[in-house]
Amino acid sequence: MELETELKKIGLSEKEAKVYLAALRLGPATAADLARHAGVNRATTYVVIEKLKKEGLASSYGRGKKTYFSPEPPEQLKNLFALQEQRLRAGFKDVQKIFPELKKIYESAGERPLVRFFEGKEGSAAVRADILRSKPKVLDEIIPLIEEVKLSEKDKTALKKLRVPRRAIYTSRKSSPALPPEEKFFKRKLINHGDFPVETEIVLYGNKAALLALKKRFTGIIIEDEVIVKTLKLIFEMLWNHPKLK
């Protein structure tokens, strides 16, 4: 069993776990000895020891001109866990007390748009999951064909699973890029990148709009606002019917 990992699970930091284990193995020891055996610098060791003392996991005493630190029995960990559990329960009760007031404040600002920010692979997956979870009746997209971007197969197929009417406007610097074939639920059009130099994918679904920047590290935002999304849908409709689309 990896004791350090298990100690971190019950609330100790990595350095606290290292120093506590070193104290258990050495018995009464100076900060210098604990630091050396724990692989933690001496200044940090003093800070960690004080924290362990506050948690009831260590004590200290003087012998001559030196101060020795001694670990408390492992049974004290049970008391620490019980104390943390007690604090969590108290904290939960406090949240319950203030929750109605917080909710009232939040709902009083209901007219403001809800904006969420995402980044990285996890962010990309979260945006796709939100689109699927929302179960929109229709889906409109503007997709720049940036060649260096390599989307996962999961990302490529996620939207197809919706089986709802879907329209996509592609922008490309190429005159005849490879595009996915049209299907029963999927219609597409193409516009030259020079006429519409957008480099951010836009997905409109329900009362939400997702804007995805695909260059280098993925970044994206989801805007949830009926008025904003309605405006974006009007712009999409105008673009869809533009004579330069083919």
How would you portray this structure in words?
Residues 7-74 form the Transcription regulator TrmB N-terminal domain. InterPro entries: ArsR-like_HTH, TrmB-like, Tscrpt_reg_TrmB_N, WH-like_DNA-bd_sf, WH_DNA-bd_sf. It holds the Pfam family TrmB. This is Transcription regulator TrmB N-terminal domain-containing protein. The structure is a single chain. By secondary structure, the protein is of the alpha+beta class. It has two domains: 3-72, Winged helix-like DNA-binding domain superfamily/Winged helix DNA-binding domain (Arc Repressor Mutant, subunit A); 114-240, Endonuclease, Chain A. Helices cover 45% and strands 23% of the residues. The chain has eight helices and nine strands. The strands form two sheets. It has a seven-stranded mixed sheet with strand order 3-9-8-7-4-5-6, sandwiched between helices. The protein has a two-stranded antiparallel ribbon with strand order 1-2. Helix 2 packs across helix 3. The mean pLDDT is 81.
In CATH, what is the class of the largest domain? Alpha Beta
Which percent range describes the beta-strand content?
A: 15-25%
Number of β-strand runs = 9
Low-confidence stretches: none
The number of helical segments is: 8
Q: What Rg do the Cα atoms give?
A: 29 Å
Secondary-structure element order, N to C? HHHHEEHEHEHEEEEEH
Instruction: Tell me the strand order in the biggest sheet.
Output: 3-9-8-7-4-5-6
What's the name of the CATH homologous superfamily of the largest domain?
Endonuclease Chain A
How would a textbook summarize the main sheet?
7 strands, mixed
Alpha-beta classification: alpha+beta
Q: What's the CATH architecture name of the largest domain?
A: 2-Layer Sandwich
CATH topology assignment of the largest domain: Endonuclease, Chain A
- The helicity comes to 40-55%
**Overall mean confidence score, pLDDT:** 81
Count of separate structural domains = 2
Which descriptor suits the 3D outline?
Answer: elongated
Terminal CA distance reads 64 Å
